[in-house]
What does this fold into?
Amino acid sequence: MRIAIAGASGLIGTALGRSLRADGHEVVRLVRRTARAADEVAWDPVREHVDTAGLTGCDAVVNLAGAGVGDHRWTDAYKKELRDSRVLGTAALADAVASLDVPPAVFLCGSAVGYYGDTGDRAVDEGAPPGEGFLASLCVEWEEAARAAEEAGVRTAFARTGLVVAKEGGAWGRLFPLFKAGLGGRMGDGSQYWSFIALHDHVAALRHILDTETLSGPVNLTGPQPVTNREVTAAMGRVLHRPTVFTAPAPALRIALGEFAGDVLGSQRVLPQKLLESGFTFAFPEIDEAIRAAA
It folds into this structure.
């Protein structure tokens, strides 16, 4: 297969590209500069430009591009960057896919479990409605931006991703150094659910979606056993053999993180119903296993 990936240099895009190449697939990387190699295609997500000719012959297009949610404080300017990098980029790729004489069989777009908002201790699957808040509204816009590809008859799926357990980046990439130094602990009262997924399982799930013709629309990429932040803290201590006596009180997090603290302290108990029903098997379904695989 020939597969184009936007966001190919990110944590998940790098792992996905490596996995695909290892199995003999051709990977084309979308880059935000002039293409310099045969496996590169130029694009500018904010200006909604894609070198469409570079997508010719692709069997699949995967969009994992987007500014990091936790990389900066959520000022109005950064919230605009978060939105534009996702919504405008997705719209540009959807338009490009739809314009091809022979479009790819599947358009796989990134999304997030932020779609559901704060679910408390209530478990939700792909049938749940969107929640409230900035991330929820962003995810709704993000997914709606792919409409051109859907209307062109391209199978379109949205990978609603949870917290990826990996030491190389993402939320867990920041946790590992703290816990290894013995400075880790729960956030707030620790009762909020974290819907995690091991990086290995995330990549395998993306490939499962690409290969499974019956999967379209939203697909939750989370492990089958969400756990609370308190349980995550205990598991990190067990696996890394470190104390976990420190806490980050909710008021301190709100001062340090601003609006983003609401999502850190929020609870999302999200289940991967469609993955399970389609026959996907998790290699690391439990939190200790996922942490150990990443450590």
Summary: The longest strand covers residues 106-112.
